[in-house]
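Q: Can someone sanity-check these two? First one:
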Amino acid sequence: MSAHVVIIGAGYAGVMAAKRLLRTRSDITVTVVNPRPHFVQRIRLHQMIAAGYDATVSFDRALPRAAHRVFGEVTTIEAGLGRLTLDDGSVLDYDYLVYAVGSGQLPSTIGGAAEHGFSVSEFEDAVRLESRMATLDGEATVCVVGGGLTGIETAAELAEQRSSRITLVTGGIVAPDLSERARSAILRTLTDLGVDIVTESRVTRIDGSSCELAGGARVEADCTILATEFGVPELARRSGLPVDGLGRLKVDDRLECSSHPNIVGAGDAVAVGDLLLRMSCQAAIPLGVHAAETILHRLEGSAPRPVAPKFAGRCISLGRRRGVFQRTTRVDDAAGMFIAGMAGAFVKERVCSSTTEWALTPRRSFFYNWT
């Protein structure tokens, strides 16, 4: 049975879904809709803003030749009609839809953030931040707001690559989801790199020269980088599809939308049954493969298999020479084992490199799955 599959989003999940579908069946037409004409290695954006790393890969390499490419943003999904409308007014019909729109940083509630804040969450944000960093001299001060993995990696990369004074501010503790020993290793390395760490302090307002903390204290900042909470696009909610409280498309453990089973979800922008899946390429890649397999099962008249998470660990780069790898259980709880220092940096780099290889090598889409 032939079918037209439209994939919204060409991140890790969308690219893997396209490769798996077209590697398997020659009678399937696949159209990939994406706002930009290249694949973004999101896990490299902190390297891009600190030292000019090229975090993009052309679609000629990232996508199968047989995949049709449409550049733009989907504004509405008319699920009952099997139709999409794009921001230029054009319309696409589909038999199956892979919802892989990804995630991005939520608009900040911090005063002055829209005017003076920068982000590293999306490629366009990183380009803007890279341009700003190029205007700063060696004596400039930079404040990174957020103690999660994005904030840690950004602060460390900048501290190692530049002579600027870097301050990391977080409303709680640094790396709250890691083990105490792994967290201590991160704090020691950040301190060794010269990063000033301010914990349990909430930023209330930023301007062009400082960040104001709750209580009135100020942190000097010629540039403020927000590495705060991530969210998802409003597309599913706007289209009347079932969503959770964060706006993620609700799907079952086969990744099918309950109200419209021909819509299959993958990546950061979906909530999979009762599973708690961290927004990460570690989840997006196998979910992309699984979404494609669900569609293939339906086309063949067989029952799709449920998702079974197989998390392995959390990797944090602390510049180019040091890092931390935190072992986790299959359901992503921190385990006791971790690797730090140069060995941690080696593991992190191998994971980043292999992640790109998995996403860009067609044959590997057969083996990377959660079943």
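And here is the second, same format, sequence then tokens:
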Amino acid sequence: MRAISWIGYISAPLFIVFGVAALVIGGTAQGWPDIAAYAGASRTAAAWPLGVGVTVVIASLVDAGTMTADFTRFSRTGREAVAATLAAFPVGQFVSAFIGVLVVSAGLAVDPAVNGGMFIGVLLGSPVSQVVVAVFVVLNLAAVCAHCLYNGAMGWSHATGARFRTTTVVLGLIGLFAAGLGVWSLFSDWLTILGVIVPPIGVVIIVSVLVRGYEFLAADAARVRVGAFVAWAIGSAAALLTHLFAPALSDAVVGIVVAAVASLIAERLASPARSAVRTEA
């Protein structure tokens, strides 16, 4: 955790510095009025409907949202945990996304449909040393990948009973292999899958906490809550059907709404049985 923290201390400020540098270079070449007048991609077959865009934005955040508790549990107080979360999402996420928007609007991104607002090419064509840029890329990727690897290893080691370090090495090797195969080209498809699967998980957890309370769920953690899994499956199925037959809508939003309703029904159906168990106890 200390290593992940130190990588973040270095990579986050560097991202802002290099992002601003790329925008200054691009702004000088393109002209800020042209950037502000960017009208978006042309309406071709490759253009996304609004619903798809909403799903991708939610999917890019929801996976990190499910990981947040794995890191905020190291906070000294609840107030610090909330402050760190607010600094990460409304502030940090906005800064990085806004820089990407400006890079695309300036026409600096190479194939933005695949690479997004990546601005490394601008820096490589500038007086900035290629060695410095390479160090920045490694640190920036490490800051993201280390968090994901920690989260994945923690979850799988807990689910399988394997040692944390062993799971970390295995997942790291799998990730390297997948990267070598060019998995990056499937990133938008991966976000679509996340938009179908992950948002219903989050809303089922939220509904369960609101209806049952955290203390009850913590005491009931050993039980397999079938209703929660059913609600998640219903929400994911609705999101998948939306993706297949109503692409103009947002898979994630539909999945969230349907899963919330299904979770409420599941919790209500489970209430009599749980009340009986409490009475017998």
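A (reply): Looked at the second one. The two ends are 42 Å apart (CA to CA). The longest helix spans residues 130-160.
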